[in-house]
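Incident log, structure service

09:12 report received: a user says their structure output differs between two submissions of the same chain.
09:20 pulled the input from the user's history:
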Amino acid sequence: MFRTVLSVAAALALAGTGWAQAKKDASVVKLDPEAFAAEVKKDEKAAAARYRGKTIELSGTAAGVHRNFGGDVFLSLPSKTAGILGVSCFLKDKKVFGKVVKGQEVTVRGRYPDFQLNVQIMDCEIVKTGPSPALTYTVEDMAKEWARDKES
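09:34 re-ran on a clean worker, output below:
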């Protein structure tokens, strides 16, 4: 009897978790950075009404990871409409340098800001990264290469 009750309780708990996850994913709006920027630039009030309170997911090739004068760290996703900085994704994790590099595919999730400055999303988390295009060497590899060909 106890096993049956325990099994039913476990099944209900798992079903509840699945429902919560499905509900959570339903509030995620997946967009292309260019489409998001165009919508914000066209009508900021309409964009705020549409996206405030929802999780925004953007995917693209990182144009760079930067730190502003206030110490905030943000990742730039290219967008002609957004201008030179592209779409700025302000990150929760300030220790992202070296984890994401320019030219790397990345997916971020964040929220629409209370105040839009250029085109940005706030409180972002990196949910997916592609392979890093950065060249990496170990000290041993560099020493071997130097010993083999000092001039190059």
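09:41 both user submissions now match this output. Likely a transient worker issue. Closing.
09:42 reviewer note: The chain has four helices and seven strands. Residues 2-26 form the longest helix (25 residues).
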